[in-house]
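Q: How would the C-alpha coordinates look for this protein?
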Amino acid sequence: MNQAHLLWSFLNVLTKVRYDALMEVYGSLEDAAKHVGEELLRGLGCREETVRDTLMKMEEWNPSFYARRLDKSGTRFLTIADAEYPSRLREIGDPPVFLYARGDLSILDQPCIALVGTRGMSQYGRRVTGDLVPDFVSAGMVTVSGLAEGIDAEVAVQTLKAGGRTVAVLGHGLATIYPRDNAELAEEIIEAGGLLLSEFPFDFPPDKYTFPSRNRIVAGLTLGTVVLEAPEGSGAIITADLANDYGRDVFAVPGSIYDANYAGCAELIRKGHARLITSASQALQELGIIAPEHPVSSYEPQTEEEGKIMAVLTTMPQSMDDLAGRSALDAGTLNAALTMMELQGAVKNVGGGQWVRA
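A: Here is the predicted structure in C-alpha coordinate form.
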Protein backbone atom coordinates (compact mmCIF):
# COMPACT_ATOMS: atom_id res chain seq x y z
CA MET A 1 0.00 0.00 0.00
CA ASN A 2 1.17 3.51 -0.79
CA GLN A 3 2.24 5.06 2.52
CA ALA A 4 1.56 8.64 1.43
CA HIS A 5 -1.98 7.77 0.40
CA LEU A 6 -2.54 5.99 3.70
CA LEU A 7 -1.19 9.01 5.57
CA TRP A 8 -3.54 11.45 3.88
CA SER A 9 -6.47 9.14 4.57
CA PHE A 10 -5.40 8.72 8.20
CA LEU A 11 -5.28 12.51 8.62
CA ASN A 12 -8.83 12.74 7.23
CA VAL A 13 -8.59 16.29 5.90
CA LEU A 14 -8.86 15.85 2.13
CA THR A 15 -12.08 16.69 0.35
CA LYS A 16 -12.10 16.33 -3.43
CA VAL A 17 -11.53 20.09 -3.75
CA ARG A 18 -8.49 19.97 -1.46
CA TYR A 19 -7.20 16.87 -3.23
CA ASP A 20 -7.40 18.67 -6.59
CA ALA A 21 -5.56 21.66 -5.11
CA LEU A 22 -2.71 19.46 -3.85
CA MET A 23 -2.45 17.66 -7.19
CA GLU A 24 -2.26 20.97 -9.02
CA VAL A 25 0.52 22.31 -6.79
CA TYR A 26 2.55 19.15 -6.07
CA GLY A 27 1.53 16.74 -8.81
CA SER A 28 1.15 13.81 -6.42
CA LEU A 29 0.08 13.01 -2.88
CA GLU A 30 3.56 11.61 -2.27
CA ASP A 31 5.17 14.99 -2.85
CA ALA A 32 2.41 16.79 -0.95
CA ALA A 33 2.97 14.52 2.07
CA LYS A 34 6.53 15.87 2.39
CA HIS A 35 5.11 19.33 3.10
CA VAL A 36 2.45 18.53 5.71
CA GLY A 37 2.55 21.29 8.31
CA GLU A 38 0.72 24.33 9.60
CA GLU A 39 1.26 26.35 6.42
CA LEU A 40 -0.04 23.67 4.06
CA LEU A 41 -3.03 22.82 6.26
CA ARG A 42 -4.04 26.46 6.60
CA GLY A 43 -3.59 26.85 2.88
CA LEU A 44 -6.11 24.04 2.40
CA GLY A 45 -8.62 25.99 4.49
CA CYS A 46 -8.41 23.87 7.63
CA ARG A 47 -9.62 25.49 10.86
CA GLU A 48 -7.10 26.08 13.66
CA GLU A 49 -8.57 23.23 15.70
CA THR A 50 -8.21 20.90 12.70
CA VAL A 51 -4.63 22.06 12.15
CA ARG A 52 -3.76 21.25 15.79
CA ASP A 53 -5.46 17.85 15.71
CA THR A 54 -3.84 16.93 12.39
CA LEU A 55 -0.34 17.75 13.60
CA MET A 56 -0.97 15.61 16.69
CA LYS A 57 -2.08 12.76 14.43
CA MET A 58 1.16 13.09 12.48
CA GLU A 59 3.05 12.24 15.66
CA GLU A 60 0.97 9.07 16.10
CA TRP A 61 1.36 7.92 12.50
CA ASN A 62 2.80 4.40 12.12
CA PRO A 63 2.39 3.36 8.47
CA SER A 64 3.53 -0.25 8.78
CA PHE A 65 1.26 -0.91 11.78
CA TYR A 66 -1.71 0.69 10.01
CA ALA A 67 -1.12 -1.29 6.82
CA ARG A 68 -0.78 -4.55 8.77
CA ARG A 69 -4.13 -3.94 10.45
CA LEU A 70 -5.82 -3.42 7.11
CA ASP A 71 -4.26 -6.60 5.72
CA LYS A 72 -5.20 -8.64 8.79
CA SER A 73 -8.83 -7.54 8.62
CA GLY A 74 -9.10 -8.15 4.88
CA THR A 75 -9.71 -4.46 4.20
CA ARG A 76 -8.88 -2.99 0.79
CA PHE A 77 -7.81 0.62 0.44
CA LEU A 78 -8.68 2.67 -2.64
CA THR A 79 -8.01 6.17 -3.87
CA ILE A 80 -10.10 8.06 -6.37
CA ALA A 81 -7.30 7.58 -8.92
CA ASP A 82 -7.55 3.77 -8.77
CA ALA A 83 -9.24 1.88 -11.60
CA GLU A 84 -11.30 -0.12 -9.08
CA TYR A 85 -12.85 3.03 -7.63
CA PRO A 86 -16.65 2.90 -8.24
CA SER A 87 -17.38 4.69 -11.51
CA ARG A 88 -20.82 5.96 -10.50
CA LEU A 89 -19.43 7.44 -7.29
CA ARG A 90 -16.67 9.22 -9.18
CA GLU A 91 -19.38 11.11 -11.15
CA ILE A 92 -20.79 13.06 -8.19
CA GLY A 93 -19.63 16.55 -7.30
CA ASP A 94 -17.99 15.66 -3.99
CA PRO A 95 -16.78 12.05 -4.16
CA PRO A 96 -14.66 10.70 -1.29
CA VAL A 97 -10.97 10.72 -2.10
CA PHE A 98 -10.36 7.45 -0.22
CA LEU A 99 -12.41 4.31 0.37
CA TYR A 100 -11.98 1.29 2.63
CA ALA A 101 -13.75 -1.91 1.60
CA ARG A 102 -14.38 -5.39 2.98
CA GLY A 103 -16.04 -7.86 0.66
CA ASP A 104 -16.62 -8.00 -3.09
CA LEU A 105 -15.96 -4.63 -4.72
CA SER A 106 -17.04 -5.90 -8.13
CA ILE A 107 -20.73 -5.82 -7.16
CA LEU A 108 -20.58 -2.03 -7.45
CA ASP A 109 -20.33 -2.51 -11.22
CA GLN A 110 -23.82 -4.05 -11.18
CA PRO A 111 -27.06 -2.01 -11.10
CA CYS A 112 -27.44 -0.74 -7.55
CA ILE A 113 -30.47 0.71 -5.77
CA ALA A 114 -30.39 2.68 -2.51
CA LEU A 115 -33.09 1.69 -0.02
CA VAL A 116 -33.19 3.99 2.98
CA GLY A 117 -35.37 4.93 5.91
CA THR A 118 -35.77 5.75 9.56
CA ARG A 119 -34.09 4.08 12.53
CA GLY A 120 -37.51 4.07 14.23
CA MET A 121 -38.99 1.51 11.85
CA SER A 122 -42.71 0.78 12.23
CA GLN A 123 -44.46 -2.49 11.48
CA TYR A 124 -45.72 -0.90 8.27
CA GLY A 125 -42.17 0.10 7.32
CA ARG A 126 -40.97 -3.42 8.04
CA ARG A 127 -43.70 -4.83 5.82
CA VAL A 128 -42.90 -2.38 3.00
CA THR A 129 -39.22 -3.36 3.17
CA GLY A 130 -40.04 -7.06 3.20
CA ASP A 131 -42.31 -6.67 0.17
CA LEU A 132 -40.10 -4.46 -2.01
CA VAL A 133 -36.59 -5.78 -1.37
CA PRO A 134 -37.09 -9.31 -2.79
CA ASP A 135 -38.42 -7.87 -6.04
CA PHE A 136 -35.36 -5.65 -6.47
CA VAL A 137 -33.18 -8.68 -5.79
CA SER A 138 -35.16 -10.77 -8.32
CA ALA A 139 -34.52 -8.06 -10.90
CA GLY A 140 -30.76 -8.49 -10.40
CA MET A 141 -30.15 -5.32 -8.41
CA VAL A 142 -27.67 -4.86 -5.58
CA THR A 143 -29.23 -3.08 -2.61
CA VAL A 144 -27.35 -0.29 -0.85
CA SER A 145 -28.07 1.11 2.60
CA GLY A 146 -26.33 2.28 5.74
CA LEU A 147 -26.50 -0.62 8.25
CA ALA A 148 -28.03 1.64 10.90
CA GLU A 149 -30.74 0.11 13.08
CA GLY A 150 -34.26 0.13 11.68
CA ILE A 151 -34.89 0.26 7.94
CA ASP A 152 -31.19 0.05 6.97
CA ALA A 153 -30.62 -3.21 8.83
CA GLU A 154 -33.93 -4.60 7.60
CA VAL A 155 -32.90 -3.91 3.99
CA ALA A 156 -29.78 -6.02 4.55
CA VAL A 157 -31.72 -8.80 6.29
CA GLN A 158 -34.36 -9.00 3.56
CA THR A 159 -31.73 -8.89 0.81
CA LEU A 160 -29.85 -11.82 2.30
CA LYS A 161 -33.09 -13.72 2.87
CA ALA A 162 -33.94 -13.25 -0.82
CA GLY A 163 -30.53 -14.56 -1.86
CA GLY A 164 -29.24 -11.16 -2.97
CA ARG A 165 -26.14 -9.11 -2.30
CA THR A 166 -26.06 -5.83 -0.46
CA VAL A 167 -23.69 -2.94 0.23
CA ALA A 168 -23.54 -1.35 3.67
CA VAL A 169 -21.98 2.12 3.71
CA LEU A 170 -20.78 2.95 7.20
CA GLY A 171 -20.53 6.28 8.98
CA HIS A 172 -17.31 5.25 10.75
CA GLY A 173 -14.16 3.21 10.17
CA LEU A 174 -14.30 -0.50 9.39
CA ALA A 175 -12.43 -1.54 12.54
CA THR A 176 -15.75 -1.80 14.38
CA ILE A 177 -19.46 -1.94 13.58
CA TYR A 178 -21.97 0.55 14.95
CA PRO A 179 -24.44 -0.25 16.35
CA ARG A 180 -22.79 -3.32 17.88
CA ASP A 181 -25.97 -5.34 17.46
CA ASN A 182 -25.35 -5.31 13.70
CA ALA A 183 -21.83 -6.77 13.88
CA GLU A 184 -23.03 -10.28 13.10
CA LEU A 185 -25.18 -8.97 10.25
CA ALA A 186 -22.14 -7.19 8.81
CA GLU A 187 -20.23 -10.48 8.67
CA GLU A 188 -23.22 -12.20 7.05
CA ILE A 189 -23.23 -9.52 4.36
CA ILE A 190 -19.60 -10.27 3.50
CA GLU A 191 -20.09 -14.04 3.60
CA ALA A 192 -23.00 -13.70 1.15
CA GLY A 193 -20.81 -11.86 -1.37
CA GLY A 194 -21.74 -8.36 -0.27
CA LEU A 195 -19.64 -5.36 0.71
CA LEU A 196 -18.90 -3.04 3.64
CA LEU A 197 -17.67 0.39 2.56
CA SER A 198 -16.41 3.50 4.34
CA GLU A 199 -14.54 6.68 3.50
CA PHE A 200 -13.26 7.09 7.06
CA PRO A 201 -9.91 5.97 8.51
CA PHE A 202 -9.90 2.44 9.90
CA ASP A 203 -10.46 3.36 13.59
CA PHE A 204 -12.55 6.49 13.01
CA PRO A 205 -15.51 6.66 15.44
CA PRO A 206 -19.09 7.54 14.50
CA ASP A 207 -20.01 11.20 14.97
CA LYS A 208 -22.95 13.47 14.27
CA TYR A 209 -21.45 14.64 10.96
CA THR A 210 -20.19 11.26 9.71
CA PHE A 211 -23.63 9.87 8.92
CA PRO A 212 -24.80 12.77 6.70
CA SER A 213 -21.41 12.49 4.98
CA ARG A 214 -21.99 8.76 4.50
CA ASN A 215 -25.37 9.45 2.87
CA ARG A 216 -23.80 11.04 -0.20
CA ILE A 217 -21.96 7.78 -0.89
CA VAL A 218 -25.21 5.79 -0.62
CA ALA A 219 -26.82 8.15 -3.14
CA GLY A 220 -23.74 8.33 -5.36
CA LEU A 221 -23.24 4.58 -5.76
CA THR A 222 -26.74 3.95 -7.06
CA LEU A 223 -29.02 4.44 -10.04
CA GLY A 224 -31.80 5.60 -7.76
CA THR A 225 -32.90 5.99 -4.15
CA VAL A 226 -36.08 4.60 -2.60
CA VAL A 227 -37.26 6.13 0.67
CA LEU A 228 -39.14 3.34 2.43
CA GLU A 229 -40.15 5.20 5.59
CA ALA A 230 -38.93 8.58 6.78
CA PRO A 231 -40.08 11.45 9.00
CA GLU A 232 -39.19 15.02 8.07
CA GLY A 233 -35.55 15.94 8.56
CA SER A 234 -34.31 12.37 8.73
CA GLY A 235 -31.08 11.10 7.22
CA ALA A 236 -33.07 9.28 4.55
CA ILE A 237 -34.43 12.62 3.32
CA ILE A 238 -30.85 13.95 3.16
CA THR A 239 -29.94 10.95 1.00
CA ALA A 240 -32.93 11.62 -1.28
CA ASP A 241 -31.99 15.29 -1.64
CA LEU A 242 -28.41 14.33 -2.52
CA ALA A 243 -29.63 11.80 -5.08
CA ASN A 244 -31.69 14.57 -6.70
CA ASP A 245 -28.61 16.82 -6.74
CA TYR A 246 -26.68 14.05 -8.50
CA GLY A 247 -29.37 13.63 -11.16
CA ARG A 248 -30.40 10.19 -9.90
CA ASP A 249 -33.99 8.93 -9.67
CA VAL A 250 -35.76 9.24 -6.33
CA PHE A 251 -38.83 7.28 -5.21
CA ALA A 252 -40.87 7.36 -2.02
CA VAL A 253 -43.41 5.01 -0.50
CA PRO A 254 -46.60 6.70 0.78
CA GLY A 255 -48.02 6.19 4.25
CA SER A 256 -50.89 7.44 6.33
CA ILE A 257 -51.32 11.24 6.43
CA TYR A 258 -51.52 10.90 10.23
CA ASP A 259 -48.22 9.04 10.54
CA ALA A 260 -45.25 11.28 11.38
CA ASN A 261 -42.93 8.48 10.25
CA TYR A 262 -44.11 9.12 6.68
CA ALA A 263 -44.18 12.93 6.79
CA GLY A 264 -40.80 13.06 5.04
CA CYS A 265 -41.99 10.76 2.26
CA ALA A 266 -45.14 12.85 1.82
CA GLU A 267 -43.12 16.07 1.59
CA LEU A 268 -40.78 14.61 -1.03
CA ILE A 269 -43.77 13.56 -3.13
CA ARG A 270 -45.62 16.87 -2.60
CA LYS A 271 -42.62 18.91 -3.77
CA GLY A 272 -42.10 16.69 -6.79
CA HIS A 273 -38.72 15.57 -5.42
CA ALA A 274 -39.71 11.89 -5.50
CA ARG A 275 -42.04 9.71 -7.50
CA LEU A 276 -44.67 7.85 -5.52
CA ILE A 277 -44.34 4.08 -5.75
CA THR A 278 -46.32 1.26 -4.18
CA SER A 279 -44.25 -1.59 -5.62
CA ALA A 280 -40.68 -2.32 -6.68
CA SER A 281 -41.83 -2.90 -10.26
CA GLN A 282 -42.83 0.76 -10.59
CA ALA A 283 -39.30 1.90 -9.68
CA LEU A 284 -37.74 -0.79 -11.86
CA GLN A 285 -39.77 0.37 -14.85
CA GLU A 286 -38.73 4.00 -14.27
CA LEU A 287 -35.09 2.91 -14.11
CA GLY A 288 -35.42 0.98 -17.38
CA ILE A 289 -35.01 -2.41 -15.75
CA ILE A 290 -37.54 -5.13 -16.49
CA ALA A 291 -39.52 -5.93 -13.38
CA PRO A 292 -40.10 -9.52 -12.31
CA GLU A 293 -43.52 -11.02 -12.84
CA HIS A 294 -45.81 -11.08 -9.84
CA PRO A 295 -48.25 -13.95 -10.26
CA VAL A 296 -51.72 -13.33 -8.88
CA SER A 297 -52.56 -15.65 -6.02
CA SER A 298 -54.85 -18.46 -7.12
CA TYR A 299 -55.46 -19.83 -3.64
CA GLU A 300 -58.85 -21.47 -3.21
CA PRO A 301 -60.25 -21.76 0.35
CA GLN A 302 -60.18 -25.37 1.56
CA THR A 303 -62.90 -25.01 4.19
CA GLU A 304 -65.91 -22.86 4.97
CA GLU A 305 -63.89 -21.12 7.69
CA GLU A 306 -61.12 -20.26 5.25
CA GLY A 307 -63.71 -18.86 2.87
CA LYS A 308 -65.00 -16.55 5.58
CA ILE A 309 -61.48 -15.37 6.35
CA MET A 310 -60.62 -14.69 2.71
CA ALA A 311 -63.85 -12.69 2.38
CA VAL A 312 -62.77 -10.21 5.07
CA LEU A 313 -58.97 -10.26 4.75
CA THR A 314 -57.35 -7.46 2.70
CA THR A 315 -53.86 -6.13 2.02
CA MET A 316 -54.19 -3.79 5.01
CA PRO A 317 -53.21 -5.34 8.37
CA GLN A 318 -56.02 -6.49 10.66
CA SER A 319 -55.79 -7.82 14.21
CA MET A 320 -57.12 -11.18 15.35
CA ASP A 321 -59.94 -9.37 17.19
CA ASP A 322 -60.90 -7.49 14.01
CA LEU A 323 -60.87 -10.67 11.94
CA ALA A 324 -62.83 -12.60 14.53
CA GLY A 325 -65.51 -9.94 14.63
CA ARG A 326 -65.80 -9.60 10.86
CA SER A 327 -65.69 -13.33 10.09
CA ALA A 328 -67.89 -14.38 13.04
CA LEU A 329 -65.36 -17.11 13.93
CA ASP A 330 -64.19 -17.89 17.45
CA ALA A 331 -60.54 -17.25 18.31
CA GLY A 332 -59.50 -20.91 18.31
CA THR A 333 -61.03 -21.68 14.93
CA LEU A 334 -59.65 -18.46 13.44
CA ASN A 335 -56.12 -19.12 14.72
CA ALA A 336 -56.09 -22.71 13.42
CA ALA A 337 -57.37 -21.66 10.00
CA LEU A 338 -54.87 -18.81 9.68
CA THR A 339 -52.01 -21.17 10.57
CA MET A 340 -52.97 -23.58 7.81
CA MET A 341 -53.48 -20.76 5.30
CA GLU A 342 -50.08 -19.27 6.17
CA LEU A 343 -48.44 -22.62 5.46
CA GLN A 344 -50.12 -22.56 2.03
CA GLY A 345 -48.85 -19.02 1.35
CA ALA A 346 -52.35 -17.53 1.26
CA VAL A 347 -51.99 -15.18 4.23
CA LYS A 348 -49.13 -13.46 6.01
CA ASN A 349 -48.50 -12.40 9.61
CA VAL A 350 -46.87 -8.96 9.35
CA GLY A 351 -46.07 -8.69 13.05
CA GLY A 352 -47.89 -7.47 16.11
CA GLY A 353 -50.66 -10.03 15.59
CA GLN A 354 -51.65 -8.34 12.32
CA TRP A 355 -52.68 -10.37 9.24
CA VAL A 356 -52.95 -9.61 5.51
CA ARG A 357 -53.57 -11.44 2.26
CA ALA A 358 -50.26 -12.74 0.90
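The chain is about 45% helix and 15% strand.

The longest strand covers residues 98-103.

Upvote if useful.
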